[in-house]
Amino acid sequence: MLNKETTFKKETVLDWMEGVRTDQDMINAFWPSQLNSKIWLTQWVKSYLPGARKVIIFGCWYGVLADILKEKLPELEIICVDKDPVPLQWTKRKYESHVVKMEDYTYYYPVSLVINTSTEHMTQEAYDKWYENIPSNTYFVIQGNNDFAEKDHIRSCESLDKFNEINHVKNCLHTDEISYEGPWNKIDNEPTYYKRFMSIGFKDGR
Ligand SMILES: C[S@@+](CC[C@H](N)C(=O)[O-])C[C@H]1O[C@@H](n2cnc3c(N)ncnc32)[C@H](O)[C@@H]1O
Fold first, then answer.
1. What pLDDT shows up at residue 186?
2. What are the residue ranges spanned by the domains of the chain?
3. What is the pLDDT of residue 15?
4. Residues of the chain falling short of pLDDT 50
5. pLDDT at residue 55 in the model
6. Could you give the CA distance from residue 194 to residue 192 in angstroms, rounded to a whole number?
7. Could you tell me if 113 and 45 are in contact, meaning their C-beta atoms sit under 8 angstroms apart?
8. Dihedral (C-alpha) 98, 117, 64, 51: value to the nearest 10 degrees?
9. How far apart are CA 93 and CA 19, in angstroms?
10. The CA-based dihedral angle spanning residues 66, 69, 75, 80, taken in that order and rounded to the nearest 10 degrees
11. pLDDT of residue 206
């Protein structure tokens, strides 16, 4: 269940506005559904993983999730990873940032938690490699959706069960879905609705 009653500090909002002025593509990270999914994830980390300290966000994009996590859980040490160097020009001002495909990331030190909210943007092969590479005894939080209409979504899935199956969710602390509004359907002149899925698991040694 998503609690939408969230406020942000003035500094955070002003920084985001500066980001949008600097790189106009960043505006795409601020659709209501994007913001809600990151607030939802932050609430779960707060509730289920209050002891998390070092966190890697894979597919971090412009770091909006990093900013929300950092504002709500200031003790977190956040590392940002994305294959696209453009948004990382923005995140690197604030967070340790690495331009690399997430499936090729090298873990030099242990982390408490890895986050991947871009599971629908990856092939199954790339996801499997990323998942295999997560060190044992690490929590993971993943999100995906059932929006097959967006051309960049190459691995959306139809249900929460399917989402957990294809993403190898084990030792599941919590799993759920929320509905969100997608782009307006101009042909039938009506709104579109999709589901966002989220799960927290623990990668054990087995
Ligand atoms: C559109 S954005 C974010 C979408 C996601 N639903 C969200 O709200 O966080 C997807 C990001 O994932 C990154 N990405 C996709 N595949 C990746 C990969 N294999 N390794 C690292 N970054 C990846 C892209 O460069 C982009 O910044």
1. 86
2. 10-203
3. 97
4. none
5. 98
6. 7
7. yes
8. -80
9. 11
10. -20
11. 63
pLDDT digits (tens, 9 = 90+) for 4-53: 778 999 999 999 999 999 999 999 999 999 999 999 999 999 999 999 99
The pLDDT value recorded for residue 183 is: 83
Separation of alpha carbons 165 and 30, rounded Å: 29
Kindly report the length of the chain: 206
Asked whether 117 lines ligand 1 (CB < 6 A), one says yes
Nearest atom in ligand 1 to 102's CA? 20
Ligand 1 site, residue 68, Cβ cutoff 6 A:
no
Kindly report the number of other CB atoms within 10 A of residue 86's CB atom: 13
Residue among 115, 121, 133, 151 whose CB has most ligand 1 atoms within 8 A, to mutate: 121
Measure the CA–CA gap between 104 and 176, rounded to whole angstroms: 29
Phi, psi of 168 (to 5 degrees): 60, 45
- CA 115–ligand 1 middle distance (angstroms): 11
Classify domain 10-203 at the CATH class level: alpha beta
* Structure letter (DSSP) for residue 206: -
What separation in Å is there between the alpha carbon of 102 and the centre of ligand 1? 9
Q: Which amino acid is at 191?
A: P
